[in-house]
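cron nightly-structures :: item 1 of 1
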Amino acid sequence: SGFIDVIQLLLDHSDKIELNGRDFNGTTAFMQPCHSGGYDAVQLLLDHSDKIELNAKANRGITAFMFACHSGHKAVLQLLLDNSDKIELNAKDDNECTAFMHACKNGNTGVVRLLLDHSDKIELNAKTDTGLTAFRFACNLGRTDVVQLLLDHSDKIELNARDDNEWTAFMHACQNGPTDVVKLLLD
């Protein structure tokens, strides 16, 4: 809930409590402020990374970094990117999706732009176990703004990557009918 004084008190008494306990969704105390945008709480917990499992996975394999990408809290996301020596930025969930893939699927251009700005740390062309990429997800789901952003960074994005069925993102877009995306790709 962002009560910094309480968080500090709990950290000070970490020998008496379980700091990395999980709720019924497998969510940890660190994941909560990453999801809700609690910048100060995230910073405090990062400062105590020797006691906190920063890369724990909740149900379905979701990490705190994935929660931050999904929620779109750019200040928290930047904080996590600045601590990339402690955070697994390219971890995969149970569906083999990375945080970058989630951002592209969700159509959050602000998050995608921020991750593209850190392309030295983010695997932009990571694939699921069936060969799907972030670019393919964006095209298939009709995320026009994200597709344009990725096209603008075509020097970093493998636009013609093929999945296990030898299909490209363009083929998927044509099959699924997001007309705006097909037009962007043709242009």
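cron nightly-structures :: done
The chain has eleven helices and no strands.
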